Amino acid sequence: MAAFGRSNILAVCFPVLLALLFQNTHRDSVLEGVPSGKTRVLDLSYAINDKLVPWPGDERFFEATVNARVEKNGYFTRSFWMLEHYGTHLDAPAHFPPGKTTVDQIPVKQLFGPAVVIDVRAESGKNSDYQLAAARIENWEKRHGRIPEGAIVLLRTGWASRWPDVRKYRNQDEKGKMHFPGFSPQAAKLLIERKVSGLGCDTLSIDHGASSDYAVHHLALGAGLYQLENLADLSELPEAGAFLIVAPIKLEGGSGGPVRIFALLP
Ligand SMILES: [Zn+2]
Fold first, then answer.
1. Among the listed ranges 64-78, 93-107, 193-207, which one has the minimum average pLDDT value?
2. Is 26 an annotated catalytic residue?
3. Which pLDDT does position 45 carry in this prediction?
4. Which residues pair with 92 in a beta bridge?
5. Among 72, 109, 176, 211, which residue's beta carbon has the most beta carbons within 10 A?
6. b/e per residue, 166-202, with b = 16+ CB within 10 A?
7. Within 13 Å of residue 100, how many CA atoms lie on the same side as its CB?
8. Packed helices 215-222 and 185-193: angle between N→C axes, nearest 10 degrees
9. pLDDT at 170 over 80
10. What is the model's pLDDT at position 14?
11. What is the pTM of this model?
């Protein structure tokens, strides 16, 4: 189209360029603001000790032994033993479907991504068996735009306020069945379609507590997503705009393992 002259192209391109530039400067300054304290960083991981909430049936989960003391040896060291799935941890795809990625093989770029926070504290407060409806994700998208590829989707249930009280956090009935909220298979399917990198929650499991088939585990891990469980308090995270750095232990062949998760606030 000859009539669409150079100045018109400039008029269209310039604002786009400006937006891109601004975005880059903004992102750089978010990272640069970390050491100076301008950018707030939330640590979404619990410190590891022997008093966290283990999965029912796990009787041995963490032990630390002092091997050397400053007074005796001139230096201090310990050795420790723990389950891969204890405290704030990552489930690698290999946790359920055989032949999938182990924790050391997760591509590094999947460990960085924008945080999508779905707040279901109201629903979870009324119903401990609440499962995230796909409509709630669509509702998030109406307000913040389509969930970007590579996002990490966190379910904020408010369950962290019960941590580390074993009885309240597991919320088991008289038959031993647990009751806490989680993702639904329909929600997981939608998020897999969006090509997100991982799912996370502030409860013991991505699947709701009463689940016996772990349908979301099968779906999400089967699609190559990883899962973050027992996340610490998510109440300070905005629904959109934070950026996550997920740093799991690089344990060769591991089904998962302890993970340190940082959220950079906008
Ligand atoms: Zn796990």
1. 93-107
2. no
3. 98
4. none
5. 211
6. eeebbbbeeeeebebbbbbbbbbbbbbebebbbbbbb
7. 22
8. 10
9. yes
10. 59
11. 0.89
Per-residue tokens: 143: 């307000």
Instruction: Give the pLDDT band (50/70/90) at residue 23.
Output: low
How does pLDDT run across 210-230, given as a tens digit for each residue? 999 999 999 999 999 999 999
What's the gap in Å between 90 CA and the centre of ligand 1? 6
Taking the centre of ligand 1 as the mean of its atom positions, its distance from the CA of residue 131, in whole angstroms, is 18
Please give the distance, rounded to the nearest whole angstrom, from the Cα atom of residue 8 to the centre of ligand 1: 55
CA atoms within 13 A on the CB side of 206: 28
CB burial of 82-118 (b: ≥16 within 10 Å; e: otherwise) equals bbbbbbbbbbbbbbbeeebbbbeebeeebbebbbbbb
Q: How many residues does the chain have?
A: 266
CA of 205 to the centre of ligand 1 (A): 7
For the chain, what is the HEC assignment?
CCCCCHHHHHHHHHHHHHHHHHHHHHHHHHHHHHHHCCCCEEECCCCCCCCCCCCCCCCCCEEEEEEECHHHHCCCEEEEEECCCCCCEEECHHHCCCCCCCHHHCCHHHHEEEEEEEECHHHHHHCCCCEECHHHHHHHHHHHCCCCCCCEEEEECCHHHHCCCHHHHHCECCCCCECCCEECHHHHHHHHHCCCCEEEECCCCCECCCCCCCHHHHHHHHCCCEEEECCCCCCCCCCCCCEEEEEECCCCCCCEEEEEEEEECC
**85, 89, 95, 208: the active-site residue:** 95
Tokens 């201090």 -> residue = 76
Report yes or no: 116 and 228 within 8 Å, Cβ to Cβ.
no
Q: Which residues are 245's β-sheet partners? A: 112, 262
